[in-house]
Amino acid sequence: MNRIPHPTRRRLLLSGGSLAALSALAACDKVLPASFNGVDITGANYAKDFRLTDADGRERTLADFKGKAVMMFFGFTQCPDVCPTALVRAAEIRKMLGADGERLQVIFVTVDPERDSPVVLKAYTQAFDPSFIGLYGDMQRTSETAKDFKVFYRKVPTGSSYTMDHSAFSYVFDPKGRIRIVLRHEQSAQECAEDLRKILQSA
């Protein structure tokens, strides 16, 4: 499979300026004081909820995962490197959390519903960890959800096919369903696990 050209890959990584903009959109009041390795967006007025379908045909919302921290990533199953890297890291984070790993739900939202059928999505996510859940919507729902989460994506032609250019950060909600932090793609599994422990301990 051809790798994404270098200029496209650069756009996949969220820049410092974009992270600063996301952080600035968060409200000033904090749920609990904390120092994160990721970007603290506690109180943000976006990324409030979602309504998407899982691979078994069930409609899912954030309320379904109450009592768990939720780590949410947007990508596509034919992604050659960024998405697999993010999901491998997510699996490592879950292991690093030990018993608390059971209280972390990883969600992968496809930005390529044309190719990522329920069967493909389920096989892909569970290859990284059986507990991971893949979600999808139709083209309109996908666009609306990405907009609600301030996620960038677009189709990029590659000969007779196409790839997807997309944001590469992960959102984390606390067990009460409140948006808390954005994890940068370049953060290590250890740094992310430290943030998740703080989120779980504050619940």
UniProtKB/TrEMBL annotation:
GO terms for molecular function: metal ion binding. Residues 41-203 form the Thioredoxin domain. Gene3D superfamilies: Glutaredoxin. Keywords: Copper, Disulfide bond, Metal-binding, Signal. Cu cation binds at residues 79, 83, 166. Pfam families: SCO1-SenC. Disulfide bonds join 79-83. The keyword Disulfide bond applies. CDD domains: SCO. Residues 1-26 form the signal peptide. Belongs to the SCO1/2 family. This is SCO family protein. It comes from Variovorax gossypii.
